[in-house]
Specification:
The complex is a heterodimer of chains A (about 290) and B (about 300). Chain A contains eleven helices and eight strands. Chain A has about 290 residues and is an alpha/beta fold. In chain B, helix 1 crosses helix 2, helix 7 packs across helix 10 and helix 9 packs across helix 10. Chain B starts with 9 loop residues before the first strand and ends in a 22-residue tail after the last helix. Classes of the chains: A alpha/beta (about 290), B alpha/beta (about 300). The structure holds nicotinamide-adenine-dinucleotide (NAD) (2 copies).
Chain lengths: ~290, ~300
C-alpha cells in the first residue's frame, strides 16, 4: 500500500482508537479519528499529540516527523466525512448492537473497495459484519494495548470475508510495521483465549492456598521466562477489564475455565481494580500506567 | 577476612543428565564441591561435557571467563560408587523420573550417609512425601526442584513433604539464597507443586486448541511471545521440555487429582506415539530442520 494515497478512519477515540490512530498517522496515513462524543474525540486527539510530543522530547522521533504525524491526524463527529477513507478501523465500545448499527450506517457512506476492520476483543467478527451490507470486506484486526508499542495484531476473517480483503488487510498491517498472526473468528482469538483461563487458574491457585501472591508472582516468571507474574499483570490490565473479558468469553464458550473466580467480583466491588485505582493485588502510589 | 563457610559445602548429586549437569554447575559456581554419581563412566563424561559446553557458550557471550569455567569444573568430581557418598553434607537426586529407580537408589544412599544427612529430590512429578516415607528419618527429606536450564532459570521450588522438618526448609531457603540469581519458593507437595501445577493445564489447553486449528504452531507461539512478552511460546516450550516428559508429568498429575485440566490431550499422546518428542528428536510442534515460517 502506498500510504500517502490512503486515508484511514479510526472509529472510537478511546484507549484503543487513540492508540491505533497514533500508529496509522505515524506510518504516514492521513488519519481521521471519529467519535460520537465531542469530549472523547478531543481527548483522543490530545492523547495522539501527547504521544508524538513525548517521542520527540525523548529523541525517538525527529521534530519534523513529529509535526508531520500530528498534521496527518484530524478529527470529526460527522460519520459522512469518512467517505474518502479506504481503510476504516472500528474501535468503539465493546457492544455488538453499537458496532453492527455503526457498520450499517457506513453502508451508504464508504467507497466501493474500502476495507472495514474491527478491533473487537471478545465479539464475533462475523456477528459484527452482519451489520454491514458488505460482510466480505469486514476483517478482524485485534491490536494490543498500548497499540503504538505492541507489535502484535491478530488477524481473523469472518465467515464471509473475501480472500482479497484478507490479503489487503495483511498488507496494510505490514505497512504499519505490525506483525500479524492469522487466527480464526473464535472467542478471544489467541492471546485472550489462553490468557484468561491462565489468569483465572492463578487466581484460583491463590485462593486454594497454593502460594501467596508474592510467591506465585516470583516463582512463575522465574521458571517460565515471563516478564511478570500473573497478579502484577492483572493489576496492569485492570480487574474490571479482566472480569468483562472473562465473562464475555464464558458466555459464549460455557467453559468454566473462563468464568472469573469470586475473588475477581470481590475486588471489583471493592474498587480494587489495580494500578489505575492505586490498589489491586498490590498497592501503588503512582496510578499512571504507560508514561504520562 | 575469611570467606564464610557456606552451608552444605559438599553436595552429593545423583544423576548427571540434563538436570544433573545444570544443577552441578549451579552448586559448583556457588563455591561448593559437588560429587556426582552416575551409572557408568560414559554417563559421567557426557555430564562433564554438557557442563563444559554450557560454560563455553557463557564465555562466548561474555557471561563468564575461562578462569571461572575451570574453577567450576574443578569443583565437580564424578563417581560410580554409592559408597563414596558417605561424607557429603546433603544428597540431591536428579536421576531418571522413575519411582522404582529413585527409591532403590535412595535406599542405598541412605545406608551410606549419616542418619541426619538431608536427602533431597529434584523430581517433577512424583510425590516427595512418598519418597520420604520409604526412607529412614523422613523428616530430613524434601524436594529441591530446579527448572531447566538450571543455570538460567531463577526459581527453585523448596518442596515441603508432609514429614519435612521446618529447620530443613529454612536451611534450604538459605541455601537457594546463596546460589547466584536464584529465588526460593516454598511449596506444598501437590502434583506439579506450584509452577507446573499452573503450567500443565495451560500447555494442554494450547495443544488442544492447536489440534482444533486455531492457528499454526508458529502463529500461536508468536502471538504469545509478542502479545504477552513471554520469552518462548507454549508450543516451542513443549518442544524444549520434551513431549514425552510433559505427557508423563501431566498424566501423573491427572492420576493424582482426576482434574480434567491435567488430562493429556489426544494429540499429545499421538505425537509421543509417533516419536515426535520435540527438540531431542528434531521434530515436535516445530520441525527443527526448517525455519519457523514453514511449520
Ligand atoms: N482496552 C484494551 O486493552 C483493548 C485491547 C484490544 C481491543 N480492545 C477493543 O477495542 C475497542 C475499544 O476499546 P477501548 O478500550 O478503546 O474503549 P474506550 O471505552 O476507551 O473507548 C471507546 C470509545 O468509543 C466511543 N464510542 C461509543 N459509541 C460510539 C459510536 N457509535 N461511534 C463512535 N464512537 C463511539 C466512545 O465515546 C469512546 O470514546 C473494544 O472493542 C475493545 O474490546 C480493547
Ligand atoms: N528435564 C527437565 O525439564 C526437568 C526439569 C525439572 C526436574 N526434572 C527432574 O529431574 C530428574 C532428572 O531429569 P533429567 O531430565 O535430567 O533426566 P535425564 O534422563 O537427562 O538424566 C537422568 C540421569 O540419571 C542417570 N541415572 C539413572 N539411574 C541412575 C542411578 N541408579 N544412579 C545414578 N544415576 C542414574 C542416568 O544415567 C541419566 O544420566 C527427574 O526426576 C525429572 O523429573 C527434569
Amino acid at each position: 500500500m502506498n500510504n500517502e494515497n490512503h486515508t484511514v478512519a479510526v472509529l472510537g477515540a478511546g484507549t484503543m482508537g487513540a492508540g491505533i490512530a497514533t500508529v496509522t498517522a505515524r506510518a504516514g496515513y492521513r488519519t481521521i479519528l471519529f467519535d460520537i462524543d465531542e469530549h472523547n474525540l478531543r481527548r483522543g486527539i490530545g492523547t495522539v499529540h501527547g504521544f508524538f510530543d513525548k517521542s520527540v522530547r525523548l529523541g525517538k522521533l525527529d521534530a519534523d516527523d513529529g509535526r508531520a504525524a500530528k498534521e496527518a491526524l484530524s478529527g470529526t463527529t460527522e460519520l459522512a466525512e469518512l467517505g474518502p477513507c479506504t481503510v476504516l478501523i472500528e474501535a468503539v465500545v465493546e457492544d455488538l448492537a453499537v458496532k453492527t448499527e455503526l457498520f450499517g450506517r457506513l453502508d451508504g457512506i464508504i467507497a466501493e473497495s474500502a476495507l472495514l476492520h474491527t478491533n473487537t476483543s471478545t465479539l464475533s467478527v462475523t456477528g459484527i459484519a452482519s451489520g454491514s451490507r458488505y460482510p466480505e470486506r469486514v476483517v478482524g484486526t485485534h491490536y494490543c494495548n498500548p497499540a503504538p508499542l505492541m507489535k502484535l495484531v491478530e488477524l481473523a476473517d469472518g465467515r464471509h470475508t473475501a480472500g482479497w480483503a484478507h490479503r489487503s488487510t495483511a498488507e496494510f498491517l505490514a505497512s504499519l510495521a505490525k506483525t500479524a498472526v492469522v487466527t480464526e473468528d473464535r472467542p478471544g482469538f489467541i492471546v485472550n483465549r489462553f490468557l484468561i483461563p491462565w489468569e483465572n487458574s492463578c487466581i484460583r491457585a491463590l485462593e486454594s492456598g497454593l502460594g501467596s501472591k508474592e510467591a506465585i508472582d516470583a516463582a512463575v516468571p522465574g521458571a517460565l521466562g515471563q516478564p511478570m507474574g500473573p497478579f502484577r499483570l492483572l493489576d496492569i490490565v485492570g480487574m474490571d477489564i479482566h472480569q468483562q473479558v472473562a465473562t464475555r468469553l464464558y458466555e459464549q464458550l460455557r467453559d468454566p475455565r473462563f468464568f472469573p473466580p469470586p475473588m475477581v467480583d470481590r475486588m471489583v466491588s471493592a474498587g480494587d481494580l489495580g494500578r489505575k485505582t492505586g490498589r489491586g493485588f498490590y498497592e501503588y502510589d503512582d496510578t499512571r500506567l504507560f508514561g504520562s | 577476612m575469611n570467606e564464610p563457610v557456606p552451608d552444605f559445602p559438599r553436595i552429593g548429586l545423583l544423576g548427571f543428565g540434563t538436570m544433573g549437569a545444570g544443577i552441578a554447575q549451579v552448586f559448583a559456581a556457588s563455591g561448593r564441591s559437588v560429587l556426582v554419581l552416575e551409572t557408568g563412566s560414559e554417563r559421567l563424561e557426557s555430564g562433564f561435557a554438557a557442563v563444559s559446553a554450557f560454560l563455553e557458550e557463557g564465555i562466548a557471550r561474555g557471561k563468564t571467563t575461562a578462569d571461572e569455567k575451570s574453577a567450576v569444573l574443578g569443583r565437580i568430581a564424578g563417581t560410580t560408587s554409592v559408597a563414596e557418598l558417605g561424607c557429603v553434607d546433603a544428597v540431591l537426586e536428579a536421576v531418571t523420573e522413575d519411582p522404582g529407580t529413585k527409591q532403590a537408589l535412595l535406599a542405598r544412599v541412605a545406608a551410606v550417609v549419616t542418619e541426619h544427612t538431608p536427602i533431597l529430590s529434584n523430581t517433577s512429578a512424583l510425590s516427595v512425601t512418598e519418597l520420604a516415607a520409604a526412607l529412614p528419618n523422613p523428616e530430613r527429606v524434601a524436594g529441591l526442584h530446579f527448572f531447566n536450564p538450571a543455570p538460567l532459570m531463577r526459581t527453585v521450588e523448596v518442596v515441603r513433604a508432609l514429614q519435612t522438618e521446618q529447620a530443613l526448609i529454612d536451611r534450604l531457603v538459605a541455601l537457594v539464597g546463596t546460589l547466584a540469581g536464584k529465588n526460593a519458593a516454598v511449596v506444598k507437595d501437590r502434583p506439579g507443586f506450584l509452577v507446573n501445577a499452573l503450567l500443565m493445564p495451560y500447555l494442554n489447553d494450547v495443544v488442544q486448541a492447536y489440534d482444533e486449528e486455531l492457528a499454526t504452531a508458529a502463529d500461536i507461539d508468536l502471538a504469545i511471545e509478542l502479545g504477552l512478552g513471554h520469552k518462548i511460546g507454549p508450543l516451542r516450550m513443549l518442544d524444549m521440555i520434551g513431549l514425552d516428559v510433559h505427557l508423563h508429568a501431566t498424566t501423573a498429575a491427572y492420576t493424582a487429582t482426576l482434574d480434567p485440566a491435567y488430562a493429556p490431550p489426544p494429540l499429545l499422546r499421538q505425537l509421543v506415539a509417533a516419536g515426535r518428542l520435540g527438540d531431542k528428536t528434531g521434530h515436535g510442534f516445530h520441525n527443527r530442520c526448517h525455519s519457523r515460517e514453514d511449520d
